[in-house]
Specification:
The structure is a single chain. With 452 residues, the chain is an alpha/beta fold. It folds into 2 domains: 234 residues, no CATH class; 183 residues, no CATH class. The chain contains 9 helices and 22 strands. It starts with a helix and ends with a helix.
């Protein structure tokens, strides 16, 4: 990315930022707001002015600072202070005693503008018309700048295209794009009511009538033809800073080490989580792996049902939440609408978290422990009955097989299905066991209550 391009494109967001900052301030300090807000020509305001509206026009006098936000902002009067503005089209064609700091799509310093200090502007286009006077420095960042007025200080700009027609009594330091770059259509084409903006070619253009009293320092990849009479000081050109990234393909050893490090990280993460499961719920893990060992094929089939059932469950929860909230809204039960949405979102998030942990950890821990127990049982029954040993060996095998190119992803999906299926079989077994226990208790209770 060319140096300064971040600032150039960042300026698109500044009008919104200034709008959000200025509007609350206006409301908090009883400033003026409305559709079309006008400070009349015979009006004098002896205070700071906070003003917002679709169209803002200042024709009178403000003895203080002005903070303005709106779509179209125009100053034809007098501001004896600073002028801050954020909007789409901003025109300053009056007197501002101090600084002008603005951000907008189109910024115009009119032919009758007289600004006592600095101008700092961000936007798509900025233009100083012939006859305008800026008493100190000017800074601009955006896409294009055309300067035809007078800047008594220095001019600093970073833009795609800059055209100098006027006078700068100090130094000029600019960074511009190459002439072969294109800016695309102006946004003003799609904005009705926008003022016309000049068409500035990409790169730096210095006209014969330009007058730069100080030095000209410009950065671009192009050679620019600069009239000798336009610059009194020295002319310096710099090439844009470029960063060349040389990508060296990794060696076979580096690829192997990277692969090994990734698999080791995965293994350690699963192992630590698995040891936590063994410590907290060893009985659950033993019974789940037992269900998986007795019916591995059925576990995979049931896992497919559970997997897609959970996905459908997300949609059902969302639709149910919307329907219930809409019903409460129809019945004017506003408090219940908010509660329904909060509870619904909480349920969806909770289900998503459980689903994610199930895929990432629980299914792999269950299947890995089952496989490790089976494998170690081939050599020693004591090892096969050890959950910790089974976890170490099973997870290692699982991490290795799921890292096989092309087939590893499918194997990982099958492992997830087997894990979810084992959870289902375990849960169903627990439910059936509880139901049988209750059926066995009921006849005994009836016999105990029979008369002697």
């Amino acid at each position: 990315m060319k140096q300064g391009s971040f600032a150039r494109w960042f300026v698109w967001f500044l009008p919104l930022v200034l709008l959000l900052v200025a509007a609350p301030a206006a409301l908090a300090l009883d400033g003026r707001t409305g559709e079309n807000v006008v400070v009349a020509a015979d009006e004098i305001i002896n205070d700071d002015l906070y003003i917002t509206g679709t169209e803002v026009t200042i024709l009178g006098t403000v003895n203080g600072d002005v903070f303005a936000a709106g779509q179209t902002i125009r100053v034809d009067g007098t501001i004896n202070g600073d002028f801050f503005a954020g909007g789409t089209a901003i025109t300053v064609n009056g007197y501002v005693a101090d600084d002008v700091r603005v951000a907008g799509t189109a910024i115009i310093i009119g032919e009758e503008a007289n600004i006592g200090s600095d101008v700092i502007a961000f936007g798509y286009s900025a233009e100083t018309l012939a006859g305008s006077v800026i008493g100190n420095d000017m800074f601009f960042a955006g896409l294009q700048l055309q300067h035809a007025g007078v800047v008594d200080g220095n001019l600093t700009a970073d833009a795609g295209g800059i055209k100098l027609l006027g006078t700068v009594n100090g130094d000029v330091e600019v960074t511009v794009s190459a002439t072969d770059e294109t800016a695309g259509p102006a946004p003003t084409v799609f904005m009705p009511g926008m003022p016309a903006v000049p068409t500035v070619p990409m790169g730096l253009t210095v006209a014969d009538e330009a007058n730069i009293v100080g030095n000209l320092d410009y950065t671009t990849s192009d050679n620019v033809a600069i009239p000798a009479s336009a610059v009194i000081g020295e002319i310096s050109r710099h090439l844009p800073e470029t960063t060349t990234v040389v990508v060296t393909p990794p060696t076979r050893t580096e690829r192997f080490l990277a692969w090994g490090g990734e698999q080791l990280q995965t293994y350690i993460g699963l192992l630590l989580f698995g040891l936590l499961v063994v410590w907290l719920v060893p009985t659950w893990l033993r019974r789940t792996t037992g269900a998986l060992g007795h019916r591995p094929v059925a576990s995979c089939a049931w896992g497919l049902v559970v997997y897609f059932g959970i996905i459908i469950g997300f949609a059902i929860l969302l639709v149910l939440m919307i329907m219930v909230a809409s019903l409460f809204g129809f019945l004017a039960l506003d408090n219940l609408v908010g509660s329904t949405i909060v509870l619904g979102l909480f349920a969806i998030v909770a289900l998503a978290v459980l689903f994610g942990f199930g895929i990432a950890y629980f299914t792999k821990i269950a299947v890995g422990t089952w496989f490790g127990s089976w494998f170690l049982g081939l050599f020693s029954e004591r090892w096969g009955n050890s959950q910790v040993a089974s976890l170490f060996v099973g997870l290692l095998a699982l991490v290795l097989v799921t890292s096989i190119p092309y087939v590893g992803g499918w194997l990982s999906f099958i492992i997830v299905l087997m894990g979810f299926g084992a959870f289902w079989l375990f849960g169903r077994g627990q439910y059936e066991h509880q139901a049988h226990a209750e059926e066995a208790i009921q006849p005994e209770a009836k016999l105990g209550s029979a008369p002697a």
